[in-house]
Hints:
The protein has about 190 residues and is an all-alpha fold. The chain has helices spanning about 5-25, 30-40, 45-50, 55-70, 80-100, 100-110, 120-125, 130-145, 150-170, 180-185.
Amino acid sequence: MTRKEQKEERRKAILMTALTLFVEKGYYDTKITDIAAAVPMSTGLLFHYFESKEELLYEVVQMGVEGTKAFTGVSEIPVPADVYLTGFLNQMFSFAKDQPWVFNMFVLMGQVRRKGMPEEARRLALSVGSIDFTAKLIEKGQEEGVFREGDPRLLSTCFWASVQGIMEEMAMDSRMKAPDPRWIVAILRK
């Protein structure tokens, strides 16, 4: 492994460790020394990778934002909206079971959007367009006669609140099985 690859591996280890600790202990109760000890590395060396805990939080949130682009980056949906959402949730739950850090990312992104978190990271977390994108899908589903009438943005918010809650529960209980995605999409059906 080259030195550059080693440095990138260490950077990823810091980010994943910070994600875990921010969720388990909370952002404000997690100290840089906690992260360094858990990686493990010296605190001084950690500061060669990230200048501050706020910068580290911002980078972890940036990972979360990048992860949402697989969903919101789609411009044309060639299948019915309910089929698309069901398939997406199925893939997301499967991926999260293989990569448990995804559950923690959902938890952290929910926490960082709240007032009182470092503003730069908060703004970044709030920039995720999942609710708006899903509202457009819901409008499509309403036009197709599959989804219930109602404010698409409100329906989207309720949909994502249920997904957020499920991901948080799965983050706390690794034995919990993912629900059938059709149950969640049923929230939207007529």
